[in-house]
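Input/output pair, single chain:
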Amino acid sequence: MNEKNKIISVIDIGTTKIIVLIAEYNLNENKIAQIIGFGESRSNGLQKGVVVDISKTIKSITDAVEDAENQAGFEISEAFVGISGNHIKGLNYSGVTSISSNSQNQAIGQSITEDDIAKVEELAANINISPDRRIMHVLPQEYIVDDQEGILSPLGLSGRRLEAKVHLVTSSVNTEKDILTCLEHLSIHVSGFILEPLASSCSILNQDEMNLGSILVDIGGGTTDVISYSNGSVLHTGIVPIGGEILTKDIAYRIQTSIDQAEQLKQNYGQSNLSQASSDEDIVVKGVSGRDEFKISQKLLSEVIEPRIKEIFELVKIEMEQSNYKGDYTFGIILTGGGSKLNGILNTASDIFNMPVKIGLPIYDFEIKNSDFDPFDPRYATSIGLLKYVGQNLEKYNKTKQDSFIKKIKSFFKELINN
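Output:
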């Protein structure tokens, strides 16, 4: 590895799949240079993003990690981990601080520093939450300096009063602890947990979509993740606790076949719009458990799929209503994730949301080495987004790590003196 590069690893822990990416980060250019390792495995042991079987989850993560390590040519010791699930909660909050002035004229404000911004964000995050939850992300929406609203970066501006409006993302400590337990078995240290829809937005949305308003709907296996943007900031995050996996189970139940074959039927012939589905019975279903093979129509599959997709989108609408945002989403709905590959889904979404809809494909500017995955597949939007998010925020993570180390040292010496 080039001495000017640093290794960054990310693990996307989903309900139906585990994705591991190992990349080189260019320290001179402060960006991801190339992916050098990729691993993917079927996810067993999780339901709706939550670990329900430790041993199966460890095995699934191990399979993906080892594949990525074999491609990269070395073992990883730390990684950033993407998580989702119904345990994730988002809320909007605000904090206010005064900017002290050295001038005798109290009407003249002081220039706002990074410490002032950190302080007001800390105050905005100072909320009462139960001991079994923690704040995972503090996402600034806007700052207000004195009476001036709509400021995205107050650094260097002069004022006497600084207010921060933020979107807070909280998660379950026990859920995170279970994932930590799994990774400890692999001797992998978790450098940080990252909200998966936040990561997906980094790989899918461009700056115009973030500025002028858009809603990203990431249809995964166990959950459907929702995140909305306007004025370049996160307005709302939410998790709908059903995804593509329920469609597969519905198909398996309706036509009495295996989960694996139901998944193949969904991917190859699934249609979310009943009016567009063919009524010809030309889809061969292999017999299972001694049964003979038989044929079905695409229309039969659609009769199963359409109501579920509509249910997911109706729940997304309910989730978005909780944001209380009264403005317009200029770019409407952007679908991604494995579930977005379903035939007819754009028409179904347009009918439900009554706004522009498109499929979002991952955007990236780094090379891919020794890996055979398709980076433009919506299934990999989150994992590519994890790399981009870490690359954009590495300095912040390093500072947090350094501050934590300094606090531990100070605490050690304080205990030493007291004893």
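The first helix runs from residue 54 to 72. Residues 226 and 296 are 34 Å apart (CA to CA).
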